[in-house]
From TrEMBL:
It comes from the Bacteria. GO terms for molecular function: transition metal ion binding. The lineage of its organism: Bacteria, Pseudomonadati, Pseudomonadota, Alphaproteobacteria, Sphingomonadales. InterPro entries: Fe-transptr_FeoA-like, FeoA_core_dom, Transcriptional_repressor_C. Pfam families: FeoA (PF04023). It comes from Sphingomonas endophytica. This is Ferrous iron transport protein A.
Length: 87
């Protein structure tokens, strides 16, 4: 099992699983939005795009949706990288 990292720093196109969300770092509307979008422990997630200058949003896939998250929100989400499937 890998050490959890923040979604903000997850490499692009790397499959991961949401490990934990630090709800205390999020404002109530942000936390509500994440819950409505389906962010919860055990959910697969993948970073698709990240703004180059480091201040812009992080686009990620959760389920069949693509969502944009502000960097501080993505930083509150801890993920574990999925191990490669045995062939």
């Amino acid at each position: 099992m890998t050490t959890p990292i923040s979604l903000e720093t997850l490499p692009r196109h790397q499959a991961a699983i949401v490990d934990d969300i630090d709800w205390s770092r999020l404002a109530t509307p942000e936390a509500r939005r994440l819950r409505e979008l389906g962010f919860d422990s055990g959910v697969p997630v993948q970073v698709l795009h990240r703004a180059r200058l480091g201040a812009g949003p992080v686009a990620c896939r959760i389920g069949r949706m693509t969502v944009a998250l502000r960097r501080p929100v993505a930083g509150a989400i801890r993920v574990s990288i999925e191990p490669l499937a045995a062939e």
